[in-house]
């Protein structure tokens, strides 16, 4: 992200948006920023004549908006202006944020539906297209398709012009089903698998158990079995995890200098999305992916064509039961958040016994802040883990405590601003 250096400077600041633009909120949320929306009432009526270029005019307008918002806010406790009884008013604290939360699921479902109907693939191949043409090509009603396309445009996924609808760069990069950084399968896993579980969030909260029986009609003890009911769904899930890992792989691989390691073992490394990126960044590093046999048998579909493919090998096994391959660096990416503390301790104990003094452990997860109230993407992922596995995301202090309990020291973290942060520890 071009703006990421700027975003990092805002991590510990109070951020106020003068408008409720969904796109701006999306950018700030993905950057891990907390923000408040205080809509500006400034009328953009500055004269453009004194500005030789659009830039000064835009800056002056933004400055006036900021000043107008600042005047409307009560600074003492960071609260909105209150009435005589000390209570916020609907004039000073509009319901915009609440309404956006209420509408949040509608935006998600619109995205899911557009992906399911391959709208972004169609527009990637043939766009721009009129709403009528899109409806005809996907076999849907013209009115309903038009509504869906307009919502996607409002969400920043489509551009709408006189020539028709076309994908925005965001959709082109992440929502084409065959894109290098495609999250299309990740979207579909949420549509088909995760969505039903959230219908029973209240039961998950009350009972503290995975709601597989209510959501899917199955109550098997193996809580992973609903991911792999057949080979087609297994491949879809692997594509989903591949995309979600790949978009952050370079951030994680370069968060620390790992050039001192000559061998690595990626436990549960699945398709090798992170392993291949590590190989690209460190040509002297040999990476072994240790995963279940049924996963490894289909990992060949994700093998890249570059020289890094020769640095990565696969070994079948269960990291809770089988002997772990020897390595200087062990990696757990999107693994620890799948399990409650007792299982995490069990896995870390096995890694600790295999890791030699001076060896490393790289953890790739989304880090919660110490107050557990931010950043929002990590909070949402933590809720996801609770709903699906009765597990959660953790803060750096929690990871430090877990790792130190198993002989790992010098625990350091880097917030990458992507879908995974990085924690590196050294075996004492």
From TrEMBL:
Residues 100-176 form the O-methyltransferase dimerisation domain. The keyword Repressor does not apply. It is an enzyme of class 2 (transferase). GO terms for biological process: melatonin biosynthetic process; methylation. Residues 198-408 form the O-methyltransferase C-terminal domain. Keywords: Hydrolase, Melatonin biosynthesis, Methyltransferase, S-adenosyl-L-methionine, Transferase. Pathway: Aromatic compound metabolism; melatonin biosynthesis; melatonin from serotonin: step 1/2. It holds the Pfam family Dimerisation. Catalyzes the transfer of a methyl group onto N-acetylserotonin, producing melatonin (N-acetyl-5-methoxytryptamine). Homodimer. This is Acetylserotonin O-methyltransferase. It comes from Phyllostomus discolor. The lineage of its organism: Eukaryota, Metazoa, Chordata, Craniata, Vertebrata.
